[in-house]
## 1
Amino acid sequence: MSTLSIRDLDLAGKRVFIRVDFNVPLANGGQEITSDKRIRASLPTIRYALEKGAGLILASHLGRPKGKPNPEMSLKPIAAKLSELLGQPVAMAPDCVGPSVEAMLPKPGEVLLLENLRFHAEEEKNDPEFSKQLAKLCDVYVNDAFGSAHRAHASTVGMIAFVKQDAKQAAAGLLMDKEIEYLTKAVKNPARPCVAILGGAKVSDKIEVIQNLMKVVDRLMIGGAMAYTFLRARGEGTGKSLVEEDKIGLARDLMAEAGPKLMLPVDHVVAAELKAGVETQVVNTVPGSLMGLDIGPKTVDAYTQVISGAKTVIWNGPMGVFETPPFDKGTVALAKAVAASGAVSVVGGGDSEKAIKSAGVADKISHISTGGGASLEFLAGIELPGVAALEIGANSGEGF
Ligand code: AMP
């Protein structure tokens, strides 16, 4: 199955509904935007649609207002910021559906931002009536909010069936399109050798990712705290390192299933406590009174060797407590190895992105995903409802 891209559509004179991800961090009771990264990320799609002569209706959720209007989670400050970034007026709707919105629909070249979708409980319930009201606003639907694609909500799934009635079209925006392209290629048809680096806090968060990736990749390198649950399952000492006791059996099964392609750290940077500037040692096995907080230099060398021969690298999760130097060294070293490898590299959102940025190599990574949860589900082989609904042939014409 494939999806249409916004590039495939004729947008001239059309009213285009773009589901964007404007779920930005706010301070001062919702008045101040502390990072406009997500707004900037949507600009290419917005500019593209405006250049093609569309009138735009932009919609997003913001925070968790639990189905009721809450002035601290209004999108008003975002309208002002977007207007500044685009260099043109952005009208702010008082709601996201109903007569007050229908009276403000944009003409070609104009931009209307809807109020927070989650002010209506029907959004998260994927309510058909609410979906129909959203669909009624537009001629064409575009989803550019990859970070919300793992949620089957009215604005990400429900409204699409109604838009597709009457031969109206639905497509992925430029950002969403890039996500689908890179992630699909990495897990379905990667250039080989294809290797994965998985780290972070818990095995339990990434069980499905490990299970799916072990079928796809040639090597699976494990780091971070999750390595200690595996090492314990192999009977090694892990001292005071983070171990998920109830996942030791599962780790044993995963190791048996993966066989030699699963690699574990062979040495560790350990300390008595997690604190910046604390005394550290490098050990092959973590002694009883200490905890493993980063992969050691021999592990960095072994993993670097694998990465340097790879044609595709998939990465999710840091190799150590990268927020607290010196336990960032392993993660930074691998980030540099990925950057130097020349491989197609796909990095999951959240902490992995922060780690790549702190290593100063973000511009050498082929694709840094904008969706933490969504990219993890994609890597786990789970079909994302927001992507499935866009697929050609999905839902067309049948409504609910
Ligand atoms: P995740 O969200 O699962 O990718 O986990 C990221 C978190 O895992 C970060 O906050 C890291 O500090 C933490 N982490 C990575 N390695 C370790 C470790 N060896 N011990 C404790 N926490 C770790």
## 2
Amino acid sequence: MSASAVGTGANLALFDDDDAPRIEPLGPGAVVWRAGARAFDTALLVAVDQVTAQAPWRHLITPGGFRMSVAMTSCGPLGWVSDRRGYRYDPIDPDSGRPWPPMPDMFMPLAQAAATQAGFDGFEPDACLINRYVPGARLTLHQDRDERDAHSPIVSVSLGLPAVFQFGGPTRRDPKQRITLVHGDVVVWGGPARFFHHGVLPLKAGRHPLTGEQRINLTFRRAR
Ligand code: SIN
Ligand code: FE2
């Protein structure tokens, strides 16, 4: 039954119809779970602040010497780092010399629930990469292939300003879907889609009530 069909009880419903979580298939092995993280948005953002208090945002340098427009940090047993030597997962935050902050309690069950929605049971991420986009920031088309575990999916949670996510195929040239991801949307790709190319177009200016002029993205991965 839809929330609006509940009659006067609708006032008590958690979501209006537009906000109710729902699954949109993207292709074999890939789904968008619309609004999947909506109910946890405030807690997720508080948790992100706690992580960045210990492991501050930074603009990593690509092996080619470019400064990434997206600011990043990580939590969990492994964090993703990039520098002139290459891309890798590392248990130590190179900026602090200390382990990455632990994954906040609520991250794991959310990542697991999302993976299950896409048919990937038993997901045990050991890395959560956190991205911050300000207007103009983007992520060029790439594959996530620094993880040793090819069986686990990638789970990506979007918060704050909307972004256009490009989702292609196994080669760079494959046709790309353009999907607008809004606050609370979760994308999962694994199995036949695990190494599909993807990216984020330059963020448009705007203001979100919870994040201001930013988009925050969490990606959960099994790296080891
Ligand atoms: C990523 O590709 O690692 C992040 C994607 C996103 O920010 O939506
Ligand atoms: Fe990626």
## 3
Amino acid sequence: MRIDLHTHSNVSDGTFTPAQVVEAASVAALDVVALTDHDATAGWSSAASAAARVGIVFVPGVEMSCRWYGVEPAIALHLLAYYVDGSHAGLVAEMARVRAAREQRAERIIALMRADGVDVTWEEVQAYAAGGTVGRPHLARALIQRGLATTVAEAFVPSMLGERWRLPKEDTDVFVALSLVLDAGGAPVFAHPRATKRGRVVPDSLIVEMAGHGLAGLEADHEDHSPKQREEVRALALGLDLVVTGSSDFHGANKTVALGAHLTAPGAFEQIRDRARQTS
Ligand code: AMP
Ligand code: FE
Ligand code: FE
Ligand code: ZN
């Protein structure tokens, strides 16, 4: 069984449509694929139809943009939520709030870019986002368009999106996110918890606290974790009785990682499904 539990479509910052993600998953010989767009569930229905067509298992998911406000400045973190009820009023409202805040933040980042002489417009970035959740990869595309970067990753250097034009998002408080996910019948998994290359990471004490608030698992095998970080996450999960997952975090052409580059064990997937059944 080949199981990949973390992918993005053009409903957020991937470049494939939800159906294309699923079709590519089938080509990559995956048996199970989750679509986990940032703060959005709009891709689920077409992904589910495509999965039925190609004969693989589709897992509805979402990657919530969260923040831990226990330190100043707050630390950003991503929470994967599997099998949540996509019509849960509280969750729907919170994701809509975060998406609106992302748009306002993109407009403020564009103002910073323009002040530095880069003539990006909001209309252009909106067109790249194509109605989906706006994120920095869409701003990266505008930079590539101008020859200021050749890849999305290159646009994230400190002199551009990585630092100079970096502004925080108004993310969901991580404990609010956990209770929303549980209330919506889902299983919450902490995405790439040790990815120091993305910025500051939360202390283990917070992961212990999250486990006490219903966290189901930790993503260990991820492109942004070194072998040592993967081992640390596994050890932490073992001690806290959390499920360990692995996934590609596929973003289409916006990242170089391939579908199925990292996988989740069948037993771990089973436990995630069971956890979601327990909360719903
Ligand atoms: P945002 O959610 O708007 O803060 O943008 C974060 C997204 O940008 C991540 O989910 C990735 O898709 C992408 N990203 C962040 N850092 C990098 C990087 N160094 N190289 C390529 N993509 C990145
Ligand atoms: Fe992303
Ligand atoms: Fe993430
Ligand atoms: Zn992701």
## 4
Amino acid sequence: MNIKSMTQPELAALLKELGQPGFRAKQVYSWLHKGVRSYDEMTNLPQSLRQQLAQSHPICPPEVVRKQESARDGTIKYLWKLSDGNCVETVLMRYHYGNTVCISTEVGCRMGCAFCASTLGGLVRRLEPFEMLDQVLFTQIDSGLPVSRIVLMGIGEPLDNFDNVLRFLELVNSEAGMNISMRHISLSTCGLVPKIDELAEKKLQISLAISLHGPNDEIRDKIMPVNKAYPIEVLLAACRRYFDATSRRIHFEYAMIDGVNDREQDARELLRRLKGLPAHFNLIPLNHVEESPLKPSSKKAVARFQQILEEGGITATVRRTLGGDIDASCGQLRRKYSKGDA
Ligand code: SAH
């Protein structure tokens, strides 16, 4: 395991084995979580220990391959090269309530959603906990902007990398680490029901976001293969269980696709199905992906959809699209890079 994926007690056990005094674990842990790139920066450690750790537990920080800043809204998008040469992207969004980092959880994705660029090349591998942490750390360091919120909405399906994601949450939330509150973290899933239940059992205070994108099986089946395994009623039942276990309102993401899921009757069907479940909707006009024939809904259709949901008692916001001028959405940069266009 990479040393930065270790919890403080695990690190303490390692250092004890190396004959180090008890206080070292906290020192090393906090250096690692400050984002040092080498053990030489750990100036309060004996030289011999620095050398030993550099040998046995290399730090492996990611490198910036490409950085783009939106001229419109200051959104910054990073493409990182990981130590094995794979690339993932991270987006920093500047909201009035705090700087938010959108991180990737996998290299590629195997969920196969029809509208998503991240899944086009399939799943390459899952990210290690430290590779998720590094995205937050090095985005903060490189940009000089303090990060207060995290969304797990970049490349990959977080619940398909469950154990590593949970460990990442523990690390980034730790007091001696970045100390980011669970309440300031959102995890988005396309709907892996058994994992939603497993997450509910942990009773974390994170927000759960569900990529719904359709009011029924007919529509979801067409655009989200995961719906064949976990149909909408099964998914919504899991959402109700999640709410019962955590008392956290569920966020639904809904990419609005012209002529596919944006009719008035679709909004009304959502109202019927979601009755009694405290929910919030994020309506996202589809980001067009080159390889896909799907197109975004008209502004008018989005506004009407929002109005119907609101009138039915479900709060719905239309997500402001940030970073549209820098392909800051959904695996677009990594995709271009790997095709040699970026
Ligand atoms: N795999 C997770 C998280 C990553 S995707 C999930 O499915 O939720 C983050 C969000 O972006 C999801 O809601 C996803 O469905 C959405 N998304 C993907 N491609 C999109 C596109 N082209 N336009 C708008 N939203 C998109």
